[in-house]
Amino acid sequence: MAPVGPRSGDAIFSSIDRVNAELFTLTYGAIVRQLLTDLEEVEEVNKQLDQMGYNIGIRLIDEFLAKSGVSRCVDFKETAEMIAKVGFKMFLGVTASVTSWDSDGTCCSIILEDNPLVDFVELPDTCQGLYYCNVLSGVIRGALEMVSMKTEVTWTRDVLRGDDAYELQVKLLKQVAEEYPYKDDE
């Protein structure tokens, strides 16, 4: 039998159990609304959404690796492509593209073609500093940290804030050496 290779984002998305997209969108909106009510400061809500995403990301990477069949990426560029082409399709059903690489290959932009989290959303004037989808930046940061990549993920463009696209900047801060709790030769 031929070895099983990595699966495409479309193949994985079609085989995964899903919840109703509207239910997911409305539930996420209710969470953001409740955070705005509880925390009152928009910047605190941004931090909390990022932290929630981080906590999701450190767990989501296991499911991604198990269901996608991908092996270890050789570098940050390949990792970013895998997030855009497989990860976003697998979990959100959207495709993304990776652009604007710096000369060192440590910083890029991920541009989402669509963003299901923002269906039915309009930000009021009192929330103009809110990064409504900041949970996504936390998910990416958390998932990458679990595969030994310390990153900084920020929104650079957001349609809800009047921009023409949804764009995340992903910057590799450092590649963390893997530590093993014991040595095999002892």
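(ticket continues) Second input and output from the same batch:
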Amino acid sequence: MSAPDSPAHFHALLQLRGRTAAWPAAAAAAAGLGRIIQAEEYLSQAQWTVLKSTECCYATHSLLHRNLGLLYMAKENYEEARYHLANDIYFASCAFGTEHIRTSGGYFHLANIFYGLKKLDLADTLYTKVSEIWNKYLNNRYQVLSQARTQQIDLLGKQFETDTGLDEAQEAEAIQILTSILNIRESTSDKTPQKTIFVLKILFMLYYLMMNSSKAKEYAMRALDLAKEQQLSVHEQNTIQDLLNLISAEEAHHIE
């Protein structure tokens, strides 16, 4: 099997996934390895393929523009990066909807550009939008699963390894996006603790649905500690305590 950083690896990737969708994926892999020139080569091929094809779907256009945006971010050409990320958001919205988790990645990367350019109000608005999209998605799944477990319906033996509804790559992206936003929120926790707690609770839900109780508990504890430290309302503290109680009840049931 070819090495992950070899040209043969990228060509194999193209053959396995089909040329139209695989060029952006190969470019992303190259960029991730710091191979900017190689990434540009793949993306120029992708652009040529997409422009020539009449069968490329909105999702493929979105993928292409997202990777072009990331490429230009790596080159610190933020004007071009913003152009491509705006196109990514447009095509992803056409394919999945403006409030879909598949669209949220474009908002997130655009927020990072604004954050780096010290346009903090714009960055904050977009980070909030990304958080709200993930909160809505995960909360819908969390409510169903937590109610079922509370009623002591034995789902654990009948489920897949996770209940996120995401594949492995999407879960990794969710963790990366949400922990990045958390790091930014924590830098201003003294001013906006509610925003930090909001992201901590989203991460709690994500890890809970991934069946990672220890990580879910860690984020809930951090949220509770911050709520107490900032003297937030009793209602807010009780809401977070309920998350911890759910984990504790499941751990006790598991021990039995």
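Agent notes: DSSP finds eleven helices and no strands in the chain. The CA atoms of residues 185 and 192 lie 8 Å apart. Closing as not reproducible unless the customer responds.
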